[in-house]
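Sorry to interrupt, but I need a hand with the structure work. Could you write out one complete protein record for me, on any chain you like? Just paste the record in under my message, thanks.

. . .
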Amino acid sequence: MLDLGNDIEDKPEVSRLVLARPTKSLGRHLQMVGRVLRPALHIGKTDALILDHSGAVFDHGFPDDEIVWTLSTDRRVENPAHASRGMQHVPGLSICPECSAVRLEGRPCSNCGWHSVATPAIVKVADGELGEVDRRRQVAKRGYSDTERRRVHRQLISIAETRGYKRGWAAHKFREKFGEWPPFGAVDPLEPSPEVLAWVRSRQIAFAKSRPPQ
């Protein structure tokens, strides 16, 4: 590290700088950050790191901004790029929430690539079943054969036995799905398909939502 308060010797090999004190002078600020921006390729220096604990970058801008220098005693050195930041359509400076580097608002972080992502809109969903839509944009009711209805009944029986429900639960669910009681009498259980499991789960969710909060 280079102590700018005591050591003013030219040391181009320095590549790390901690800004621990603020300054209102742009010239002084550029002098400080310039200590680590000097090239020294002959010793393998390829980059520089500035840790700005004083917030000087928000007052004076980035070290690589184009500066308007002047020899007039009536004018101060200016950073027009930084002066315009945050005005109209020019992005201001912000802190990257991922790596804490200073970045331009609305743009990806030049250090880690982080960028803000819009919060996805909430999509309203309704319980139901997929159906075939005709050219009139109407959903045709699906017809179930006796074989398909019997298979659903057997799968509901299997779910009831696995969960410790009475077989009457399977009959009620069958009626809820098809609008009538199962006419098949005693049937053997059948391993439930993902579709039947998903339908039962949707009915449980709908029932839980219909109950008043406790």
